[in-house]
Amino acid sequence: MFLRFPLDYITSKSCVRCTAFHCGATSLTVDKLDPMSHPMPTEFPCTHMIYKIPDYFPRTALVDSSDSYSYVFIYAKSVSLARRMYDAYDPLKRDKTNVIAFFYDNDVNYVVMLWAIWMLGAVALPLNHAYPTEDLEYFLTDSMASLLLTTQNHKEKAVSFSHLGPTPVVYQSITSNENLAFERYDDLDFAIGEQWFLQKPALMIYTSGTTGKPKGVLLSHTNLHINILGMIDAWRWIGDDRIVHSLPLNHVHGVVNALLTPLYCGATVYMLPKFDAKVVFERFLERNEDYITLFMGVPTMYSLMIKYYDETYGSASEDTKEAIKEQLQKMRLFVSGSAALPVPVLNKWREISGHTLLERYGMTEIGMALTNPYRGQRVPGAVGLPFKYVNFMIGVYNAYVKGEYEVIVEGNQKEVTVTEGKEGQEGELLIKGLNVFSGYWNAPHKTTESFTSTGWFKTGDMAVYENGVVKMKGRLSVDIIKYGGYKISALEIEDVLQQNPDIQECCVIGVSDITWGQKVVAIVALKPNGNTLTQETLQEWARERLPKHKVPSVFKFVDQIPRNNMGKINKKDITKQYFGPKRK
């Protein structure tokens, strides 16, 4: 059976070869998959997004700053683009893995280009056109992209990279929801078998580089599919959902969580060019039939919205504040991820909205792995339990057996087993399942190093299982500070410092020290009214709340803590910036 997309299907009510559990088909359901096995089952449900789109043709898929667009409109545009690319470029006809990079803006054209690339059976590599030239050159060279797809807006930049190998392809971008003559398009048939489609790599995302030079993470269609189904199961996604999207579209959070998952369900995505606290918060407060039902963001976004609320509504009447909370209560879910959520932010957001932020854990290589419950207690500072289809282990490296770990705790969504005598012990978090990535692009050695001999992916994050939930304790390399024989969690100190009413944000790092190994250093940004704080007063305040060895020996005051475009703090860069060999 081949992947065929007849455009005259738009008048039909049945699904094109879709055997998803949503459709009541009789083929193997995802529930029967063994999440411990990496090879694909011989039969797999044909529920990839490309097959689901026809279910939602009349519905509104996406609204951007220009217009609103139906599923059938975006689908037809994708078919047209895929046909033109296939006819024009010979490399796409060869039996090999083609990587197609594309410059994007946060609008409907992103989805059109992504779907077209997948219809060609190629790997999509989304690139932020605003990145430095040096970074883009590295991504295009390392990925060996055969084509660089772009809209007219970024044509000149795309052409400037043609000497690196990829052929620039200019796509006439959509500026409005113009009418389409559907009958003019032929069937799209590129002989893509269903099983082939799901096993092939789909998406390449470059890691943020917090642990070294960026690596291309290859995610297969199955990886994406399992992640999407896991989030639908955990967070109760439905077709009537409406989400505001303001995340970068070259990271898993923005691509899979906040875009592909709602589109898989037939929901509507309200896409903003970029995050703006005022625009997002006021959109939440709009009283109309298409009110927003959920939002996904990084902790920084919630902090900025809290700041906007305080500045705009802080002196408002209690009736006004209650009306705001009542409107926010219509929304069913707020999710926080991509960085640790400070407890004060969680508490303040709950005060404003009546919602307890749902914190989850994931990373580029594994997608989503752990989540607090949709219904039930959400423990501050915890990331809950595994998603469906995901297995986790917390273990300690076994120095006597190469590549293996001594198990502290192991389990999945339904059952967790703690090794006797190891209750409450910290260790490295390891993940296994069909959600885990295929490997690093052209880096087999690095891929091998990232897994144990039994197939567990080593996240490099420290965790502990306490009171029925997993709590993250920081990165193995940067969030664990070794001071005078102690192993100190930087996140623990950050959580305490964030409780100081004069601190806007902070970052704790370990700086090399000839006597103690590392000394504890806090980079601190103060609120406008906190400029009277000094090194001495902060240390005195911290001593009342932390053991002596955990009190920072140095407080570095800055106007703002540097972050990358996902709102993450790169502690290696910060250490180099403020305490490198050329700094005093």
Quick summary of this structure?
The chain is 28% helix and 27% strand.
What's the layout of helices and strands?
Blueprint: E1 2-4, H1 49-52, E2 60-63, E3 68-70, H2 71-88, E4 99-104, H3 108-119, E5 123-128, H4 133-143, E6 147-151, H5 155-160, E7 167-171, E8 189-193, H6 194-199, E9 201-206, E10 216-220, H7 221-235, E11 242-245, H8 252-265, E12 268-271, H9 277-284, E13 294-297, H10 299-313, H11 318-328, E14 333-336, H12 343-353, E15 358-363, E16 367-371, E17 382-386, E18 390-397, E19 405-411, E20 416-418, E21 426-433, E22 439-440, H13 444-449, E23 457-466, E24 469-475, E25 480-483, E26 486-489, H14 490-497, E27 503-513, E28 517-526, H15 535-543, E29 554-558, H16 571-579
Parallel strand pairs: 2-12, 4-5, 4-6, 6-7, 11-12, 11-13, 13-14, 14-15, 28-29
Antiparallel strand pairs: 1-8, 2-3, 9-10, 10-22, 15-16, 16-17, 17-24, 18-19, 18-21, 19-20, 21-23, 23-24, 25-26, 27-28
Helix pairs in contact: 2-3, 7-8, 9-10, 10-12
Descriptive overview:
Belongs to the ATP-dependent AMP-binding enzyme family. One of its GO terms (molecular function) is medium-chain fatty acid-CoA ligase activity. Pfam families: AMP-binding, AMP-binding_C. Residues 59-441 form the AMP-dependent synthetase/ligase domain. This is Acyl-CoA synthetase family member 3, mitochondrial. A hairpin with a 3-residue loop joins strand 27 and strand 28 (517-526). The strands form six sheets. A 15-stranded mixed β-sheet has the order 3-2-12-11-13-14-15-16-17-24-23-21-18-19-20. Strands 5-4-6-7 form a four-stranded parallel β-sheet, with helices on both faces. A three-stranded antiparallel β-sheet has the order 9-10-22. Helix content is 28%, strand content 27%. Among the domains are: 257-475, 3-Layer(aba) Sandwich (Rossmann fold), CATH 3.40.50; 486-579, GMP Synthetase, Chain A, domain 3 (2-Layer Sandwich), CATH 3.30.300. With 584 residues, it is of the alpha/beta class. The chain has 16 helices and 29 strands. The radius of gyration is 24 Å and the shape is globular. Helix 2 (71-88) crosses helix 3 (108-119) and helix 10 crosses helix 12.
